[in-house]
């Protein structure tokens, strides 16, 4: 296991329904990092925004955005993580809001959003994922989640002993509910004895909904290691320590009493 893991989270102002423009923006923003990060993370639906046209704009599983993610992963020797809508070819809706993790060699895994947002058109447009996932990158065990999943602690529950070290969450979480976002990020870190990285967008979307960011990397004590709280487009960066996490879990093995 790599002792430290460097994570770079792009708090992006998503250009509404313009995938090419968003891919260029992400490429330009991460370019100065070179190979200084182990994981590059972008918000939920980073190519389109959280649009009523997400299903119509869905791509083939290894379409243009996958190929872009592979180029980014290869160029930066890092895992590229983000969500975009994908045609599944199964189920009545046949489209999923899919979080991808793409490796430098082009191999990838995915997690389909488990809780589609019923207060928008997402739940009626997209398939709801049914599988929880955990994957490894450079020895770290990572649990992926998407936006609304954050409200469901049972869905994100760690095991006894812990089976993941980092909860990685991509979101489009509106400014009007940013207190809930920040509180829940910390709660999930504390209760699961893990690091949490929550990556949210900024700006105003195509239907006038504002987003304030508040992207954050939170440690297992619920302390912010890095955050984007000023509502501006920025890259939030942090270095995670496996030794510090292991020492905390050994000293405070709360997981032994998990229900």
Helix count, DSSP H or I runs of 4 or more residues:
5
The helicity comes to 10-25%
Biggest beta-sheet profile: 6 strands, mixed
Mean pLDDT, to the nearest integer, reads 97
Given the helix and strand composition, which structural class is it?
alpha/beta
Overall radius of gyration: 17 Å
Number of strands: 14
Low-confidence stretches: none
Shape: globular
Describe the structure.
The protein is an alpha/beta fold and 259 residues long. The chain is 21% helix and 29% strand. The protein is built from five helices and 14 strands. The relative contact order is 0.17. The mean pLDDT is 97.
Structure keywords:
globular; 6-stranded mixed β-sheet; alpha/beta; 259 residues; 14 strands; 5 helices; 21% helix
Quick overview:
This protein is α/β, with parallel strands linked by helices. The protein is 21% helix and 29% strand.
Blueprint of the fold:
Layout: E1 4-11, H1 19-30, E2 39-41, H2 64-76, E3 79-87, E4 95-102, E5 108-112, H3 122-125, E6 135-137, E7 140-146, E8 166-170, H4 178-192, E9 195-199, E10 202-204, E11 210-212, E12 215-218, E13 224-228, E14 234-241, H5 242-251
Parallel strand pairs: 1-2, 2-3, 7-8, 8-9
Antiparallel strand pairs: 1-14, 3-4, 4-5, 6-7, 9-12, 10-11, 12-13
